Model the fold of this input.
Amino acid sequence: MAKKKRVSYIRGKGVSKLRLAYENHEVERHQNIEHYKDIVYQCGKCGTCRTVYKDAYWSRICPSGEFGQFEAYFLGGKNLLSWAVTSDKLKWSEDLAKIFYHCSVCLACTQQCQIPEIHHYAGEWLMAMREEAVRLGFGPMPEQARYTEHINKEHNPYMEKHEDRTNWLPSHIKQSPDAKIAYFVGCTTSYREQNVAIATAEILNSLQIEFKILKDERCCGSPVYMTGQAEKAKKIAEENVKMFKDEGIEKIITSCAGCYRTLKETYPKKFGLDHGIEVIHMPKFLLDMVNSGELKFNKEINMKITYHDPCHIGRHMGIYEPPRKVLNKIPGIELVEMDRNRHNAWCCGSGGGVRSAFKDLSTFAADERIEEAKGTSAEAIVSCCPFCLNQFKTHIKDNEIKAFDIAELARKAI
Done:
């Protein structure tokens, strides 16, 4: 039997290292578009960003490009447009801004490119172009501006009342007012996928973990930041960090992939808010508990499942194996992989502001992923992001396949 090659990833991200090439430029992350103007031109317009490089049968990889059916919507086109803007050959316009917002920033395209600087950093200038669009008044998209207004008013993007945020919380859940561990529920889990919140809290109780849910928990700022509104997102982040410190929090457990990336990566590295708080996503927490012997799965769940990698913890943060290891520990679970998995996973289509502003693109991406999941003959698609989960539930037709969060299955197995 051939030995499986171990994939090596760029430090701190889930984009794999190049096999043949090496870096030639000193480039930093989280900079403005001017920082990248001397490397965007390196794109050779080869089209490699359109398909999975060598793996997964050269499957298509870019929802924006495949739906838009025009070069501008693929990374190669966006690179050319970025070069044209930074070299004063093209002026900003509403149409140009729409092209850069017609993208979930899933980073699947950067994974495929074999030009080192693009492979490593294209995601940075995709975000930088959004920030520039906001600075010049061409962004965000109207729908994204509306949910940002609601976040500022009610601390969530769902047009819900802040006072209703913990309506999901059952009376049997025990919290410790003086706990140093916070369960950061997140907006989607609080308002849309409340079963995930209940399952997570019940798991923490079963492990006798002293934790609390912050009385004034509010949006982490991810929807604002991902649409290029960096200054507004930084203000949200500053308010949240102050709240964490005032509450004496030393560790945060998250249900949401977007919350995890924002609290752990964006706050310190983009906004310079080095809060010193340990941030751990639920599947990694579960795996740690299983490995330590504190968590045991005693009940069998006879189910064939497939796992969907959320972009925000996959290519953005490099978390691929912990969820799979947890699922494989649950008795009766049979895990089968989709062709596009891990660093080559097809995006669900709900991130980066796409679901609010470009509903047709969002639906297109979701439908393709659901069809791929059905092709494995799995009974359910499982993820560890409530945004992905809600996206699948919204687009699954006639109960043709089920959708679960990893916490829901873990709770059933205890």
Notes: The CA atoms of residues 95 and 135 lie 16 Å apart. The chain has three domains: 33-135, 152-288, 295-413. DSSP finds 17 helices and seven strands in the chain.
